[in-house]
Amino acid sequence: MADTTAQGREMRPNRVTFHGMTAFLKSQFPIVILTFVGLSAAFGNGSNLREEGSEDRMKICSDHRVSARAIRNAGDIQAFVRCAHEFMLKAGPDVARAAFHEEGLWRHGPYYVFVDEIASGGDESRAFVYPPDPSREGRVWGRLVDSIGTDVIAEMSRTLAVVDEGWGYYGFRHPATGEDEAKASYFIKTEWKGNPAAIGAGIYARDMRGTCATDDVTAAELDSAPSQDSLRAFVECAAELVAAKGYFAMDELQTSSRWSHGSTYVFVLDMTGHQVLSSSGVRVSGRSIHEWGGADNLVTNFGGRDLLEVANTFGEAFLYYSAYNPTNFAVQGKVSMLKRVVAHGVPVLVGAGYYLPPGGTSARHSVRCADNNISASAIRNSRDIEAFVNCAYELVMRTGPDAARRAFHEDDRWSEGPFYVSVSGIAPTGDGSMSFVYPPDPSLVGSYWGPLADRFGTDLLAEVYRIMELVDEGWVYYSFRNPATGREEPKSTYARVLDWEGHRAVIGAGIYSRDLPGTCRASEVNAAMLEEDPSDARLREFVRCAAIQAESSGFFAGPVLSSGPRWLDGSTYVFGVDPVSGAVEFSGSPSSFAVSGRIPEVLFGGRNVLKAAMPFGNSYWYYNFADPATGEAEAKISFVVRILINGKPLLVGSGYDPHR
């Protein structure tokens, strides 16, 4: 953690619909920004492409195993399906089919493995594995047309003609609600007893972050069952409201029971720390006073650390502090989250929180390593970091400090590049904090860190101490030297308290990111670098940084994104399309989409992928497209992210040719 410098797949043979999507689309006026890049390197080349390289794909399961019980997001679904595919290839169809039907590892709630025959449509596709209803197995599905307008099986077949594995988006009955709802499934082309097949699993939009199902994401739900996961979902939905309506969200925040219940409420701060909106019913002289006591008391609450700048840099951040609870008149530990959005062209921080039980210190309940086991080489995001730290913690508990120390320093499973486990003593300052495990420089083990002041205003180890006095696990945000760049960069670490040979210590691991609001450097994320050395990771960075540019500048970003040298290089360019009319609003290559509405009719076999993408926070598209550099039709994969600009939805994306 420290460095020597601070720096129901319920397919039925009838028509299914996206529950509530029509009303949503009618209430919005979306525009779509996309970017496409033609690759000159083979799919999977490059030092950061372990997850994309075909020769490495079957190693993923040994690097990252996720059980059905532990699935929380799309990344988990992807790892889950890859593990299921590897298991099926090793065990054979009959053994795999029996295992996929058992509750536990491969089946839990709405999460299960399915295997379907690849065919031109549902009329010809047989279900080979379908745990929700085994009686369907071996039978033809029948025509399966959803509200987006195509047969679901036909769309899966079309996708797998472009790539060997990918995502599909469709409407399907959710077992918890009984309603047809948006669902995303990841599937892999395979073989089942000599027949071409697809193995996959899916997740509903309401179960993904940022999709804001009204009946699931409420203050009452958070108040009754608080956790960092439910807090994140609540804040993200409140942030979407503020981004869409800006200060006009005040009436809804103050009057709707969705945003205030018990001790749970939404607040909005400007970048100086002053509260500008709140759903709290507590008023003093007619004013809602923020629990921190205003901008002047940030030092008191956070030991001098600039948490506003932390949230602005990272885009979102969890905060741990003590606060007065007006419902029981006691000072308690509290976990809050801030999320940065742009409202009326101005960045603001949307937040909420929950109180810890009196005398309690647990921030959340960790997922067991048995359900989410990941190695350093497979880490891709913050969810993976949490799983990695949980596994490291369990290793210490199981083997003891000596054996764990050797493993953390010598075993590649625990250390690769910027990902490693560290253990340090918990003390009020770095002067009193000893290093117990530090793979980047084992010579520091046994010595005291000394002061580690970072760009956010306090000694890093002092911040760890402050947080771990309140909770026994949580996130720490700081700046630190990135070994890949040699520069001090923002880093977020997940940490847990443990006993280390009689010392109160903290075990943790962290992750750097180049697509945060405070880290989207043009010198590191740009069209030229993506075109020269493409990868899925760079693709996502490029898309998210373009989205941040669009959020900051609104529709004035159009000329910059369509012609600026950062966003236009070779066959890489940005363009905006209205998903309702299909009209091109702007483009770095105007001739590529000369015909309005050409996207669904020509590229996707008639499927309106613009509409299909709307319910999800992000999505992938697969199609054939004319490379502007060569004029030849080539396979394309696009990744798109939904954001809001001036209250209107926007999809930001980029793409590449997977077969070059």
Q: How many helices?
A: 18
Helix content: 25-40%
The coarse overall form would be globular
Q: Helix/strand-derived class? A: alpha+beta
Low-confidence stretches: 1-59
Radius of gyration: 25 Å
Q: pLDDT average, as an integer?
A: 82
Give the spatial strand order of the biggest sheet. 26-25-1-29-28-27
Number of DSSP strand runs: 29
For the report, how would you describe the main beta sheet?
Answer: 6 strands, mixed
The percentage of residues in β strands lies in: 25-35%
N-C termini distance: 39 Å
What's the SSE blueprint?
Layout: H1 21-26, E1 31-36, H2 60-63, E2 64-66, H3 74-91, H4 93-101, E3 107-108, E4 111-112, E5 114-117, E6 127-129, H5 152-162, E7 165-173, E8 180-192, E9 195-204, H6 219-224, H7 228-245, H8 250-255, E10 260-261, E11 264-265, E12 267-269, E13 275-278, H9 298-302, H10 307-314, E14 316-325, E15 330-343, E16 346-355, E17 372-374, H11 382-399, H12 401-410, E18 415-416, E19 419-420, E20 422-425, E21 435-437, H13 460-468, E22 473-481, E23 488-500, E24 503-512, H14 527-532, H15 536-553, H16 557-563, E25 573-577, E26 584-587, H17 598-603, H18 609-613, E27 618-626, E28 633-645, E29 648-656
Parallel strand pairs: 1-29
Antiparallel strand pairs: 1-25, 2-17, 3-4, 5-6, 5-9, 7-8, 8-9, 10-11, 12-13, 12-16, 14-15, 15-16, 18-19, 20-21, 20-24, 22-23, 23-24, 25-26, 27-28, 28-29
